[in-house]
From TrEMBL:
UniProt-recorded name of the protein: Retrotransposon gag domain-containing protein
Superkingdom classification of source: Eukaryota
Pfam families reported in the protein's UniProt record: Retrotran_gag_2
């Protein structure tokens, strides 16, 4: 494709994206001349970790409980997803703290698993 073709395509894409935006978002990106510039502006607006987002993720972490008879793999996957989201907003836990949080919400019926893991983490 020629450079002129790319510029035309970019303007068309920019127009289509603008049509899908709410008024308050469209207002913030009205000055954008390219799709890349628009995406950069929107990224800056929405990717900054807000206090409410951090609180929401922390609540998700501390309310995550492994139900009786629930899959350990599913529980660990959900836990790791939340930990990754927290890391992306610059909240980090060292390995020992992660293990302790993970074990704190394992049901009592899995006490033997908790004991085995607790003993190996404490060393």
């Amino acid at each position: 494709m020629e450079n002129d073709d790319w510029e035309l395509l970019d303007r068309q894409v920019l127009g289509v994206i603008r049509l899908t935006l709410t008024k308050n978002i469209a207002h913030n990106v009205a000055e954008a001349k390219t799709t890349a510039e628009m995406m950069s502006i929107m990224s800056d607006m929405h990717e900054k970790p807000s206090a409410s987002n951090k609180v929401h993720l922390m609540k998700k972490l501390f309310y995550l409980k492994m139900g009786e008879g629930a899959s350990v793999v599913t529980y660990i996957n959900e836990f790791n997803t939340i930990i990754s989201q927290l890391t992306s907003v610059e909240i980090n836990f060292d390995d020992e703290v992660r293990a302790l949080i993970l074990l704190a919400y394992v049901p009592n019926s899995r006490e033997s698993m908790r004991a085995v893991v607790s003993n190996s983490v404490g060393k």
